[in-house]
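Recap from last week: sequence in, structure out.
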Amino acid sequence: LWKRLGTNCQNQIEAVVILAAYRALMRIFAPAVAFKAEAIVAPEDIMRYLGVGGFEGKVCDIAYNATLMNHLWHAMACENTHLLRTTLSNLPKAPPATTWINYIRCHDDIGWGITDENAAAVNQPGRGTRRFCVDFYSGDLPGSYAEGYRFQVDPVTAESRVSGTAAALAGLQKAIVENDDEAADAAIRRLLLMNAIIFFMRGIPLIYSGDEIGQLNDYAYLDDIYKRSDNRWVHRPPMNWRRAEARHVPGTPEYRLFHGIRRLTDARRELRVLHGDSSQEIILVDSDSLFVVERKRGDDSALMVANVAGVPRRIDLGKLPRRWISGRYVEAIMNEPVHFTFGDLAIGPYECLWLVQPRSGVDDETVRAKLQVRVETQFGENVYITGNVPKLGEWRSEHAFGPLSPDRYPLWEGEVSMPLGTVFEYTWMKKRDGRVVETGGKTHFQRAVRT
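Predicted structure tokens:
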């Protein structure tokens, strides 16, 4: 909107003045119109369009929360939230009567608005951090699960923006093409995790059309002479109504995503503490894989714990704010009690918990927790489970639970009664003639839920 020699011609004060003039005119003859800032720029520049320095209430009402969006994608790629939580902690509060649009993807490409200053705050180079995001989500780094595409490459710095649907960037497209069920499960968990975060944070959550069923990249634009030079069309597909019908088929990616997001909408609607006027505080914990945020409104409070890593993580309950150290909560997304029994809050890979305080006077309900492990054995060997709760022997091999049933070998299965919501950890062990001959190297986390 305004050019000035010696600058990048972006975010000039005159652009804000022009915007304020348009807003003033609109308030005269169409006062119900809301102004939305689609400024995908650095955090301090975004705030100009919400109104700072005398422009409060005079420019935009809402703005794309690009800072949360691109820093969240960075956190998912490196399984580390240090940059995300540091940048958001230092972001100025939105002026009164304004709010954010929280989103994962939209019609446009992803611009990596990670400034050199914000990267330096966590001892990272700005250009290197942005290049990492581009390389990862373009699928060029070893171990990347993403299938995105570079857009508008800078010939000097090699930095660029990235195109691709959320499902393609989160690994679902690659998993489906390679028929990898385990990778598809991880991708779905990543997508639901990111949605759970944007639904919890202050602002209005936005779901880009097709993301609710995991719509994949669309390459039809390559056949259109007017579109083929702009790869942003890869994430602008028409709705695939055939795939959309799969949202009614349990077990499909479409079903898991659609109903997972529906649970988030229902939970958000019920939680008064997520009202727009509630406070928000990022809680620093020992693990960089965890993103912990507390919302408070009056006497109500809620705690979000999100794990961006593909392995379980835990927090010492004693390191949380005092009101959260009991270990006994209600998980609001599933609306079920959750009880951490061993002094730590344990959270699974790519999992997000919305925790609220339990209502008083609620009796424990006992459920049958199903245990299942995949173990190959020799003749005469049986499989047992040992874990941290009394029903599983409290890690003592002589009191291990079992033997499990081998009816679906190599799956060994069993059921154990315990209070609803109990979070427990366990591993398997093989026994022959009552003696342990081998133990599992992986610790599993599970929550006792209704089946």
